[in-house]
Amino acid sequence: MSRKQQYLFLNFGLAISILLFINVLYFSTNNWDVRRIFYPQDSVRLISTSKLPVNLTKGIKRILFWTEYFGHEDFPSLELGPTGVDVQRQFCDYGCEFTTNKELISSSDALIFHGRDLKTESFEVRESSLVRPNHIPTERNASQYWIFYLLESPVNTFVPLEAFNNFFNLTMTYRTDSDIYVPYQRLVKITETELQNETPNRKLLQKKSKMVAWIVSNCETQSKRELLVKELKKYIQVDVYGSCGENSCSSHGRDNGLACYEEIGKSYKFYLSFENTLCTDYVTEKFFNALATGMVPIVYGGANYSQHAPKGSYIDARSFSSMKELASYLLNLDKYDKLYLKYFQWKKHFRVENVTVLQRSWCRLCRALSTGEVPLVRTVSNLKSWWMRYRNSTVCTTPDLPETLELL
């Protein structure tokens, strides 16, 4: 073979190799592997992204609420504007179009499935009863994200999540290991102007004549918080508001709304931010509402609270051996104003962000999609295992409180 023939043969082989590589790359990012990666069930038809209708919003990400949200699908219940578009950037620096119109599924960049509103159905396979998703789309495009969204704890998750293995691409929850992390609330740094208004002083104490308040509507819980409060009331004044108590807020707001916290915050020094479940990362609005309304939260939960607020801004009930010891500590703070006011030093640097958890959820999702923060290819292979366990440990614990109700 001449040198010229060798040269042509090598170039021909190189060209064939390049074509084969392009072919493999194309199919690895299209229907064949995408069906396996995104949704292995045969009942869902994958459509090519090249056949999608153009999004009329031109460049703005479209997000479709596929399920209801606690039985609602209207924009007010989702805390969005009447059109589903945050045009004025009222709560988010990124603009996305939100819709509940299922006819727009093909042109939607992401679908939100609320965990408490997921549907399943049973079916039989070789005399074994199994479950599978129900009321789900019949098609999806290769670049579309299907998102598991839930703010309730695993204890209060009643859907058989094993039906949704290999179904979702992303998770969006209060858990810090979620793909899109959405805390119930957060502290943000304040400006110098805000600092002048938030500096703690003894004026804060002039109207506070009462000790401990608690707003509660769930009277029997997994965390057994109601038993701890019953014990605590033996040693210190605790006024209970809501359907589980004898007190009620005025007509200005619901017993569990922020207006109620603002009302009792004028009179009470401490608030029981006791969670109904003891689960990893689970810190709800009751903690932040107390901070925002001038009370010192007494926390009882399964989270690391120092990840959410500075130490010295709250009191951890689990750091005391008993409710009697906790009560003694609170009575001492009540006696010495200087010690009590130290729990407000955090206000010199931070404030509670004035954004609701739903608005924060939609904004963080919009930002993640708009900036490419989320992975291009991802599947949640075992949703139930992930949701129920954290770093090889059980996510939620049930306290085994002895008769003396010691916490340690």
TrEMBL record:
<keyword id="KW-0808">Transferase</keyword>
<keyword id="KW-0328">Glycosyltransferase</keyword>
<dbReference type="InterPro" id="IPR055270">
    <property type="entry name" value="Glyco_tran_10_C"/>
</dbReference>
<dbReference type="Pfam" id="PF00852">
    <property type="entry name" value="Glyco_transf_10"/>
</dbReference>
<feature type="transmembrane region" description="Helical">
    <location>
        <begin position="7"/>
        <end position="27"/>
    </location>
</feature>
<dbReference type="InterPro" id="IPR031481">
    <property type="entry name" value="Glyco_tran_10_N"/>
</dbReference>
<feature type="domain" description="Fucosyltransferase C-terminal">
    <location>
        <begin position="206"/>
        <end position="386"/>
    </location>
</feature>
<keyword id="KW-0812">Transmembrane</keyword>
<dbReference type="GO" id="GO:0008417">
    <property type="term" value="F:fucosyltransferase activity"/>
</dbReference>
<dbReference type="InterPro" id="IPR001503">
    <property type="entry name" value="Glyco_trans_10"/>
</dbReference>
<protein>
    <recommendedName>
        <fullName>Fucosyltransferase</fullName>
        <ecNumber>2.4.1.-</ecNumber>
    </recommendedName>
</protein>
<keyword id="KW-0472">Membrane</keyword>
<keyword id="KW-0333">Golgi apparatus</keyword>
<keyword id="KW-1133">Transmembrane helix</keyword>
<feature type="domain" description="Fucosyltransferase N-terminal">
    <location>
        <begin position="61"/>
        <end position="185"/>
    </location>
</feature>
<dbReference type="GO" id="GO:0032580">
    <property type="term" value="C:Golgi cisterna membrane"/>
</dbReference>
<comment type="similarity">
    <text>Belongs to the glycosyltransferase 10 family.</text>
</comment>
<dbReference type="Pfam" id="PF17039">
    <property type="entry name" value="Glyco_tran_10_N"/>
</dbReference>
